[in-house]
Amino acid sequence: MDSTGLSLDRMRTFVRVAERGNLSMVARELGIGQSTVTRHLNELEQAVGVPLLSRTTRRVTLTDEGSRYYTNCLQILRLVEQAAEEARDARQAPAGAVRLSCTAALGVMHITRLIFDFQDKHPDIRVDLNLTDERIDLVREGVDVALRLGPLADSAMKLHALGESHRLLVGAPTYLSVHGRPERPADLSRYETVVMSNVAGSDQLVLSSPDGTSLMIPVSGKLRVDHGLAAREAFAAGRGIGPAHLWLVHDLLDTGQLEVVLGDYRPLPVPVSLLIVPERAAIARVRLLVDFLVTEVSKLPGIRPT
Description:
Shape: elongated
Number of strands: 16
Strand order of the largest sheet: 4-3-5-15-6-16
Helix content: 25-40%
Structural class: alpha+beta
Largest sheet: 6 strands, mixed
Order of helices and strands: HHHEEHEHEEEEHEEEEHEHEEEHE
């Protein structure tokens, strides 16, 4: 094995190509030419003595040897970065970038403002905020921390449960004045419901009754949306009724633009969690952001301990 090609720069290039699957995308991300990316990969493969990547005109994929090498490179690069961070943090205030992914509506309504407060306290920390409702691969996308709503599948990520997001049934006074108010849960089947098309089972509304039992009500509507902010606008415009997180509509409830429907019956709460890439958890700037979010997210409307 020729060790002359085994530099950290070449490992970093290889790792990002393995994660992105596209040479030109990695070149733009790293601020280097595509020819430099190709040279780094060729030199690394020559150094280790085996093909690491399989290249086609459309995509780059890992070979079996490349897959194992990627895992080892990832651990090496994270250890190197962590060692540098810990050495620097011992002498000065934490600095650098943290990449945070957050469900979109919560990010727009509240988390962006919280990040402003965080950066006022830690002006040397850059936060890259990625807003998406897709369950992305944190490692592949280079994300350090993700704030998620809903149940989580088994994950290799470090999990920090923040509590539950409580929801209400809401409707606009204009809609309720025309169509009347439902008097019992079974009535909901006769009303227009704003349906979240990206939420599994949204055609069945599960409500918790005052005695603790659960009721399942089939619902439907002519409007289906895949974004919480679109649902918020639909409720306010009188397009129907439906379940909404309190943090999404609390201001509209306060001003009377929305009203609570069947207040004794509540949609089931939704878990709120932080996912943290384990190898990034010990880095000071990541730890600071996690601790900040743990404290501040619990203060948002409707977020309560489990």
